[in-house]
Input
Amino acid sequence: MPAAIAPQPVTIGAIQDNISIFGEKDPGEPQRAAVQLSLCLRFHDLVGLLAFHPVAGLTGEMLADDHEVSDALRFTLADSNLAQIEDYAGLAVTALSGPGRPFHRYTAMVGEAVTRVFGLTAPITEATHTEGIPVGLATLTS
Output
């Protein structure tokens, strides 16, 4: 099942002046209200957003920093719709499908960061195995 909006209602916070879209002080900005929406995202959704969304731009060094990874996810989600999330997830699945795939090494590094920061791991399915060895996170050292 693709990324989905969770059944919880949207919550609206207090109205504030001089605040950016991300809640940081920004003089001259119009009034804004904090809106919280819950999304249910899979491992490959997160990896896809962080590895392939142009806003993420995570380097290897940045992937080692939990705050950088979380912050990049915040920006990519603000700049994505559900169809884009699904498309990026497809790119992640393809990249992680084998060590010879384009962007495999980088995408696997992003997968490690997703597991470390968010606690999700790659699903183990028949399609993610090659010669009995899981492909993706299990082949990060190859």
About this structure: DSSP finds five helices and six strands in the chain. Strands lie at 4-5, 11-16, 32-36, 39-40, 129-130, 133-134. Residues 126-142 have pLDDT under 50 and may be disordered.
